[in-house]
What we know:
Helix content is 0%, strand content 36%. It has 105 residues and is mostly beta strands. The chain has a single domain (7-102), classed as SH3 Domains (SH3 type barrels, Roll), CATH 2.30.30. Strands 1, 2, 3, 4, 5, 6 and 7 form a 7-stranded antiparallel sheet that branches. β3 (43-50) and β4 form a beta hairpin. The mean pLDDT is 90.
Amino acid sequence: MPKLSNKKLCADAECSHPILIARALQDYYPGDCRFIPIRQGQLIYVYAMLKDRGNLFWAGSVQDTYYGQQEARIGHFPSSVVEETHPLMEASTEVKTTNWDFYCN
């Protein structure tokens, strides 16, 4: 799969800490396995914001209402389908993306 961007903004060099919590404004059905499905009202922990040509996409994990209801995996989604609800850390670390950031199995 092609890379969506060559750079991303994270809270740390490993992108291991969430930047913010966002709430889905609408359902989002992904086009391929690089993206995660989102239902309106779900909370998403955002770990990275893509830069440059991919700046419309963020990477995160959905927090469902019941633990284990949805497999925990990080994927991309359009930033336009969510609203920021709780800032957690500043996204001040620029990190180069790798092919693994956009890997599909």
